[in-house]
Amino acid sequence: MADTVSYGAVFLIGFLGGAHCIGMCGGIVNALSFAISPVERNSVKLNFILLSYNLGRISSYTIIGVLVGALGWIAQEALGPVSFVMRIIAGILLVTMGLYLTGWWTGLRKLEKLGGYLWVYIEPAGKRLMPVNGSGQAFVLGAIWGWLPCGMVYSVLTLAAVGGNSWNAGLLMLFFGLGTLPVMFVTGRFAQVTKRFLQTSVFRNVAGVLILLFGLWTMTGAIYFSGKHNHSNHVIDSEMSMPGHSHH
Questions:
Q1: What's the CA gap between 138 and 52, in Å, rounded?
Q2: What is the pLDDT of residues 86-107, one digit of tens each?
Q3: Residue 4 pLDDT
Q4: Using one digit for the tens of pLDDT, what is the confidence trace for 232-241?
Q5: Hey, which of 81, 111, 169, 211 would disulfide with 160, CB 3.0 to 4.6 Å?
Q6: Residue 192 pLDDT > 70, yes or no?
Q7: Is 136 contained in some domain?
Q8: Does 178 fall in a domain?
Q9: What is the mean pLDDT of the chain?
Q10: Phi, psi at residue 239, to the nearest 5°?
């Protein structure tokens, strides 16, 4: 188990962030639905295309998680314990994600714009795959779209990096991606109905506040465990400095 958050927690973040997912990926999901003939839109073929697209997207999240986990490990080996800083950053990003969903503050868009510099080079490869007419094509498109600049993904990636473990980081991103799956799949089937529900102020406010609270909990936990760790070290140092203490 990752030392910061449970897999269930990141699954919930992915699910609650559905309103953000619709804004970021809703257009491409709608395009998948309308790329096939009207006769086939309610068929098994559409289900496979939508599922393949989402599995491709989730696969990319998992791979990015493994890479970020490796970077977190390298950072901790080179710089010492940096998990406290990463936890605080992750908490801040989650708070800004919550504020973004509620509409109270949209500063997260600035972070997504930074990721846009890389996306400019990746997006054309995805566009060349349109229109999609098969599951394999949809999977590759989803794998490409998994690199789309997204503040919510960045928030969870920071959490994934904390453990400094590629395996845990990859699993965290896998569960986060699975959390986004229900909303993205249903949107492909019932685009207008789903979008109307997820864009309601009630859903956005509830989801935003819950993610905001999770971000505050993440930061509070980081401060608590840091203080506890420092206290333990202080006790050990005090015992080591006591008269008569022998070193072996």
A1: 6
A2: 888 888 988 998 998 888 988 8
A3: 46
A4: 555 445 555 5
A5: 169
A6: no
A7: yes
A8: yes
A9: 81
A10: -65, -35
Residue 238 pLDDT: 53
Listing DSSP states for 50-80 in one string gives HHHHHHHHHHHHHHHHHHHHHHHHHHHHHHS
Three-state SS annotation for 137-200: HHHHHHHHHCCCCCHHHHHHHHHHHHCCCHHHHHHHHHHHHHHHHHHHHHHHHCHHHHHHHHCC
Instruction: Compute CA 154 distance to the chain's CA centroid, rounded to the nearest angstrom.
Output: 6
Is residue 29 within 8 Å of residue 120, measured between CB atoms? no
Of 211, 208, 147, 142, which Cα lies nearest the Cα of 181? 142
User: Which pLDDT score, from 0 to 100, does residue 248 have?
Assistant: 47
Is the CB of residue 95 less than 8 Å from the CB of residue 216? yes
CB 204 within 8 A of CB 102: yes
Is 2 a domain residue?
A: no
Q: Is residue 245 part of a domain?
A: no
Span of 58-67, 104-113, 207-216 with lowest mean pLDDT: 104-113
Query: How far from chain centre, in Å, is Cα 121?
Result: 21
**Domain tally, the chain:** 1
Quickly count: other Cβ atoms within 10 Å of residue 123's Cβ. 15
Token digits for 117?
Answer: 């510099």
What tokens does 49 get? Answer: 């295309």
CB-based contact 66:166 (threshold 8 Å):
yes
Taking 90 as the threshold, does the pLDDT of residue 31 lie above it? no
- How far apart are alpha carbons 23 and 199 in whole angstroms? 9
Q: Are 152 and 16 in contact (CB under 8 A)?
A: no
